[in-house]
Amino acid sequence: MSHEKFPRSGRQFFENIGIAAAVLLTVAGTVLSMTVFRAPGFHADLDFLMALQNFREYTGDLLTGFFQMVTWCGSSYLTMPVLVLVYFGISTRLGSFLLQCVGYSSMLNGFLKLTVSALRPWVRDELIVPPGDAKIAATGYSFPSGHSTNATAVYGSLALMTGSRYRWLTAGFVCLLLLVLFSRNYLGVHTPEDVLIGFASTLGVVLLMCKIFRWTDTGDCRARGRRKWLLFLISIVISVLSAVCFECKSYPEVRDAAGHPIADPARLVQDSSRVIGLYLGATSVMLFRHYFPGYQAENAPRNERVLMTLGAGFLMLLLHLGMPPVLSLVFPAGVAGVLSVFVMVFAVFGVFPVLAAGREGGTDPEK
């Protein structure tokens, strides 16, 4: 992916407007979700979900299967393989951009979830009944939507980067993103404000990342390295402060009629530790690949791209399944969560491409 892919000159004005609007909307949505939307008398968002539920029942769940399939496109079980495909099979530079967007937006999403601690729609109103197994993937607090964050970070970034050059592809990514966003409401697992802020906050991150990538591209190699070191050190500070905040904050403990926890604070904090690992892993990869460029998909032949993509996917699956149980034997749950995701991200997107640097055509062209 060439440097010119990141918007410059006049487009930066709209970029700045987009970031400002995303910040204002995120702050306003967060405040409202902690005050007005939490009031006992407020139920406009649930009324919307109930209307969609009535439609599902009236049509005999005609579209439910379709939206259950669509909503899976916003799960990390699909967005992460898409990231691997882009990083190793299409453009390592574009994949690096997606990785940073996913890391930063996931960290922001985890912070907002535990800050607001909004309960799921079916917890607020027992009349809301998500269809089938829709509740299985709807873990943790409700605000903002994690699927909306994942979809915007990946498909929204791809739509922005393809731009007018591949209009049909851009339109496809935009349509997929909108379908994923609406599916969270249609299935009754998120309120409209959950989806809207998940989208808006992540869009702000994507636009900000355009500026960060331009900034880290400016100057000589030493200057670029200093800037990436600065981003890495900032990520460490943010991660430590967030971890302390997550552990010290009090959370509402809600139980069902049988006394089982509906929202277990300890489990939710443990889940949020994984986003810290993802965030640290992403910033570490950016710094590491500056000094060790390694494999670049842009310069590799097609058969090598296929092999690298399959190898990276297998490595990610192996680490995803194997690291958590091993690390949980040695470290506390929260630390194990951070380390398991960090090791997976750093190994797959950092170490693996460097070890493959000796492959013909797969090295950085500037090296």
Descriptive report:
- A hairpin with a 5-residue loop joins strand 1 and strand 2.
- By secondary structure, the protein is an all-alpha fold.
- Helices cover 71% and strands 1% of the residues.
- A two-stranded antiparallel sheet has the order 1-2.
- The chain is globular.
Q: How many individual helices?
A: 13
Which parts are unreliable, with pLDDT below 50 for 5 consecutive residues or more?
Answer: 359-367
How many strands appear in the DSSP assignment?
Answer: 2
Helix content: over 70%
Kindly state the mean pLDDT as a whole number?
88
Radius of gyration: 21 Å
Structural class: mainly alpha
List the strand order in the largest sheet: 1-2
Distance between the termini: 16 Å
What characteristics describe this protein?
single chain; 367 residues; mainly alpha; two-stranded antiparallel ribbon; 13 helices; 2 strands; disordered C terminus
Q: Could you outline the blueprint of secondary structure elements for this entry?
A:
Blueprint: H1 11-34, H2 44-58, H3 64-72, H4 76-90, H5 92-116, H6 121-124, H7 146-162, H8 167-186, H9 192-217, H10 221-248, E1 254-255, E2 261-263, H11 265-291, H12 302-327, H13 333-355
Antiparallel strand pairs: 1-2
Short overview:
This protein has 13 helices and two strands, in the order H-H-H-H-H-H-H-H-H-H-E-E-H-H-H.
